[in-house]
Amino acid sequence: MEFTTFVFYVLGAILLFAALATITARNPVHAALFLVLAFFSAAGLWLLLQAEFLAIVLIMVYVGAVMVLFLFVVMMLDIDIARLRHRFWSYLPLGGMIGLLMVAEMALVLSGKYFSAEALPGQAMPEGYSNTKELGRLLFTEYVYPFELASVILLVGIIAAIMLTLRSRKDTKYPRVSEQLAVRRDERVRLVKMAAEKEAPAEESQPGGQ
Fold this sequence. Notes:
Elements: H1 3-24, H2 28-48, H3 52-76, H4 81-84, H5 92-110, H6 131-139, H7 144-165, H8 177-182, H9 185-188, H10 202-205
Helix pairs in contact: 1-2, 2-3
C-alpha cells in the first residue's frame, strides 16, 4: 500500500467519525468542534487531490470564520439540550431516508464524468499548471450558469435571514431624518440672559460668619 493511499484511508476514517460524532453529540459545543475536525480532514483529502486552493479556502472560510461564529452563537445562547433532543427518535426514519438519498446522489455525481480529472493524485503536473486558474476558468465558462444560480440562492438566503430577524419593537426608537432636517434653531436652542456677575450676600462675604 502506498503512503498516499494510507493517508487517504486515515483521513477518510477520521472524517466519517467526525461526521457521525457531529450529529450524535449531546453537547452543541462538542458537535461544533467535531465539525471543525471534519473540515480539517476534508481539507487533507483536497490536498491529496492536489487542490491546494480548495483546501486553504475550506480551512480559512469554514473553520476560521463560519465555525468560530457558530461557536460564539452556541456558547452565548442558553440552549435547552433536553428540548432539542425531544422526539429525536421519531424523526430518525425521515432523517435516514434523506441521508440515503444524499448518499445516492453523491454516488451518482462521483461516478459521472464530472470527476474524470486528467491529473490524478500521484501523477506529475505539467509545468506552469495552476489549479486555482483552472477552477476559475471552469466556474466562469462551463459552469457559469450554475455559479450564478448558486449566487442568487445565497442572496435570497441572506435576505430571508434578515427578514426573519427583523422585527418591529415598540420600545425601539428610530431616527426620523425628515424631522431632523426640518428642525429650526428656535425649536432647539433657548438663549437665557443673565447677569455676568452677582454680589455675594453680606453674611457670606465675611469669613466665619462675622
